[in-house]
């Protein structure tokens, strides 16, 4: 699996959510609404989710194992950092 495109939409409002990201996998499959969150231990991603009838949030799409999740998170956070650096230069 290769992430072939990452699109970052920064959130300008105050709060913990810093961006919403879309990724393309193998130029064939897109996942929208991945959130970049600023948590107590730093930035992390939250996969797209939906609130169920019992009030719990459940991921709609997510990596199956922790290695893949780490790889996806690293790629997204790297692109987010690049976007932040470009904005700082302007």
UniProtKB/TrEMBL annotation:
<protein>
    <recommendedName>
        <fullName>Putative septation protein SpoVG</fullName>
    </recommendedName>
</protein>
<keyword id="KW-0717">Septation</keyword>
<dbReference type="InterPro" id="IPR036751">
    <property type="entry name" value="SpoVG_sf"/>
</dbReference>
<keyword id="KW-0132">Cell division</keyword>
<dbReference type="GO" id="GO:0030435">
    <property type="term" value="P:sporulation resulting in formation of a cellular spore"/>
</dbReference>
<comment type="similarity">
    <text>Belongs to the SpoVG family.</text>
</comment>
<dbReference type="Pfam" id="PF04026">
    <property type="entry name" value="SpoVG"/>
</dbReference>
<keyword id="KW-0131">Cell cycle</keyword>
<comment type="function">
    <text>Could be involved in septation.</text>
</comment>
<dbReference type="GO" id="GO:0000917">
    <property type="term" value="P:division septum assembly"/>
</dbReference>
<dbReference type="InterPro" id="IPR007170">
    <property type="entry name" value="SpoVG"/>
</dbReference>
